[in-house]
Amino acid sequence: MVRETDTQTYLEQLGRSGGMVLGLESIRDLMAELGNVQNKLKFVHVAGTNGKGSVCAFLSSILTEAGVCVGTYTSPAVFGRAEQYRVNGEDITEEAFDETVAKVRRACERLREKGKNHPTVFEVETAAAFLYFYQRGCEVVILETGMGGETDATNIIETPLVCVLTSISMDHMKFLGDSLDKIARAKAGIIKENSQVVAVKPLQPEVRQVLEDRCAKKHASLTYSDETQAKEPRYGTKEQGLRFTYPGLGEVELSMAGAYQVQNAVCAIETIKVLRNAGFAVSGGQIRTGLRKARWEGRFSVLCRHPLLITDGAHNRDAAKKLRETLKRGFTNYKIIYIIGVLADKEHEEMLKIMLPLAWKVYTVTPFGPRAMDGEALAKEAAKYHAQVRFCPDLKEAAAFAFDSARGENAMILAFGSLSYLKELREILKETPDYDR
């Protein structure tokens, strides 16, 4: 058996050796080597720019509460690759991860022997998800796209139970297109012939037009989830999360506190309604309980309570606007300290313009990875919009400065931007004396 460290080394080497390759030819070859097990599974396929992971978490939690054996595949990993493969909310074990990736690795080697290219790391990870969920006997798989939709490796699936489109905005323009309608077309590529579609109701007319045209072309049934159906959204106490009332359900409570989670929860509710019509018995009580129990690390997640430290993966203009709205709704009584690290190919200047007016102090860092934006350059950019900005050469220093600033003040710390440095931040907090969950 391939040991865990060997598995991680193999995947890391794959990630370094090959770039992003869009298209389905390679994943089709790989899944053929694995017996096309994906064709024996049932899927809820989720695409979009923001909110995919949260919608997946809500759906998984609700279906688990209803007694369905549900697999959930999400990306990217924040705290470890195991979290990408969950069955009924439980991460894959190291042993199962090793064994599953080893089987996929052997299939890749057979492809090489046939003169074909080695699949990318995302294709290997996606194939491993299909294989693992098949071996576990999952009744439903919640499947998040990696990027885009039409040419994403997950789009090899043929007959999804539901195709879900979360909010769509500008992101990954290098690969998906330089306009909102081009990006929407890429995302809408997951919509299959005669499929059931649930989409967050777009504010932009060009996005609505793309979704409606695709559904008409594919004879697909389109249901818009509308956040305005959630009445009286409100923050509770520290013991009670975000709450709202919803037709047919009554009062709903979310443990995931970001104001934008109302939109994601409504999308999940409407998706569950479609699954009910497909024969899955899910009660209103199970929907409410599943929503309350759902967790999604790195999306307005509390890592520390004294002082309050929250992490959020906001990485583009639309996500920054939603994060700002959350702060304005529930956290205006705090002095807010930012720790910011971003990737160079993101809309960092737009994010700074949106977020910095709410900050008290700002510390910038350089995230891990080749796409990271230099934190010192980010600090210079941030200084155009805020007077108290400081670059920290390493994250531990930024955390120390943030904690020192918060001490004795009614202050909170918000670490946002790239998800890539949140794992390191969590490890730093575990070593910090003031750390208190």
Features:
2 domains, 437 residues, Protein-Tyrosine Phosphatase, Chain A, 8-stranded mixed sheet, globular, UDP-N-acetylmuramoyl-L-alanine:D-glutamate ligase
Structural commentary:
With 437 residues, this protein is α/β, with parallel strands linked by helices. The chain folds into two domains: 4-293, UDP-N-acetylmuramoyl-L-alanine:D-glutamate ligase, CATH 3.40.1190; 299-430, Protein-Tyrosine Phosphatase, Chain A, CATH 3.90.190.20. Helices cover 40% and strands 18% of the residues. It is built from 15 helices and 17 strands. The protein has helices at 4-17, 25-33, 52-65, 94-113, 121-135, 173-176, 180-188, 205-217, 261-277, 284-293, 317-330, 348-355, 375-382, 395-406, 422-430; strands at residues 43-47, 70-73, 85-87, 90-91, 140-144, 162-165, 196-200, 221-225, 231-234, 242-246, 250-254, 299-305, 308-312, 335-341, 361-364, 389-391, 411-417. The strands form three sheets. Strands 4-3-2-5-1-6-7-8 form an eight-stranded mixed sheet, with helices on both faces. It has a six-stranded mixed sheet with strand order 12-13-17-14-15-16. Helix 3 (52-65) packs across helix 10 (284-293). The longest helix has 20 residues, at 94-113. The protein is globular and about 60 Å long. The model has no long low-confidence stretch (mean pLDDT 89).
The CATH superfamily of the largest domain bears the name: Mur-like, catalytic domain
Q: How many beta-strand segments?
A: 17
Please identify the structural class as seen in this structure.
alpha/beta
**How far is it from the N-terminal to the C-terminal residue, by CA?**
38 Å
